[in-house]
Amino acid sequence: MRPDRRHAAGGRPSMSGTFRSGLTPGRLRTSLPAEGTGGATRFGAFVLAAPRGAPETLWRLAEPGETCLLWAPPRGPRLAAIGEVASVPWPHDAGARDGQARSLLAQVGMPDGPDGAGAIPCLLGGAPFDPDRSAGAFEALGPGRLVLPRWTWIDDGQAARLVLVVEHDRDERDLARLARRGEALLDGLARTADASAPPRDGRWTPPPRSAWHRRFERIRSALDAGEVDKLVLAHAGRVEHDEPVDAADVLARLRSRRDAVTVFGIRRGGTAFVGATPETLFSLRDGHVVADALAGTISAPAGADPAEVIDRLGERLLSSAKDRREQQIVVEAVADALRDLCTGVDVPARPAIRALGRVVHLSTPISGRVRDGVGWEQLVRALHPTPAVGGHPRDAALRLIAGIEDEPRGWFAGPFGRIDASGSAHVAVAIRSALIRGGCAELWAGAGIVRGSRPDAEFEETLAKMRRLRAALGAPA
């Protein structure tokens, strides 16, 4: 799976016409905030009309070593970004303070008029599941950060824009280089390239079943002793290729399935973390928050036609006391967390069925209106990790996970999302994800264990959750 740089320079010209940035060093200089004026603005933002297309195209135009980010939810703007101007830590990381993201975004001056419409400055990024256990294979991604990108491509469903953020103290040589690069990026974005078909020679190594059984028994003992009433056990399988895996191609294949998942990704150096998650930690807009209590899983056997079995599988889930109990633990924990931060919380009486390919879940959207002064930072700390990916009670579950799982989860099941200058936030849970390094990809998945869970059934559930990524990585089940 060698990266194919023809995507950047060649490919099929788009039908969106010719795009020119009109950027010059002089235009950049006159539009930047003056150094030493005493104002709060440190950065200038330039919004350019850009071709619509595939967000991962921007990754293919990145320079070596540039940070790359991608955020493609089922509804709302799709974003891709390269380069890093500044960053702030996630709220639950050491050194984080409420308001840091808002303060950074307030330092970005946006142009007036139609060019800036729909291109509100935003931060993108993610964080480890447990900031105290974030090293291991994920060490290259570093601690959790929200990044103010150098270049952000935004497609709101009607039009696309390319946003450049520039520091006020850039010299003329830097400004000339940025102007030239703007033209090159617009030219590259105007050339579309279909995702190449995945090779089928990926070597698949499943996680060891014996280790799963051993850890499962430790969890069963904790359940019997009353230490926890639910714990999520996670592990990783592996796909290997002789050539480096192109993360942009994997993202394109994950997006090619038109279902209700958020495709996300980050790449730093030679390490990428990508996924297609069905789970939203929360979305916050105009003071209205919605969180997703997703738990309880059943999957159709390989080869089954999902259209023929989804209804039947959904009814089985709804009638399963074990799965309903597992999901209700998540519902109650999320609702309790929101009640402390909201003036009113709405909890549907009955879960809905969420079908994603051959995998079916129970899902309950829980909503409310946040109290005055409550922002996205408080929501992250209150909700992450929910019992859908950690366990319940939270602190006891995290201690057990640290003692039972040999490898740190890294960014798997951590928060990943977008924060903008208006105070809106959309944060997903980074499940159904893979860590890519060279020709090797580690595919992560977990299963919730409660009384009545059976080890082999839960093990098979994790394999079912890995199917989509296996196919995208060229090792279909």
Give a brief description:
The chain is built from 12 helices and 25 strands.
The largest sheet is: 13 strands, mixed
Spans of at least 5 consecutive residues whose pLDDT stays below 50 are 2-17
Strand content: 25-35%
Mean pLDDT: 89
User: What does the overall shape look like?
Assistant: globular
Q: For the terminal residues, how far apart are their CA atoms? A: 18 Å
Q: How would you describe this protein?
A:
The structure is a single chain. The chain is built from 12 helices and 25 strands. The protein is of the alpha+beta class and 477 residues long. The two termini are 18 Å apart. The protein is globular. Helix content is 28%, strand content 31%. The strands form 3 sheets. Strands 2, 3, 4, 6, 9, 10, 12, 13, 14, 15, 21, 24 and 25 form a 13-stranded mixed sheet that branches. Strands 5, 7, 8, 16, 17, 18, 19, 20, 22 and 23 form a 10-stranded antiparallel sheet that branches. The chain has helices spanning 6-9, 25-31, 57-60, 100-106, 172-189, 209-224, 247-255, 306-318, 321-339, 376-383, 394-404, 455-472; strands spanning 12-13, 43-50, 68-72, 78-82, 86-89, 108-109, 122-126, 145-148, 151-155, 160-167, 191-192, 203-205, 230-240, 262-268, 271-277, 280-285, 288-299, 342-346, 352-356, 359-370, 391-392, 415-420, 425-429, 433-437, 440-449.
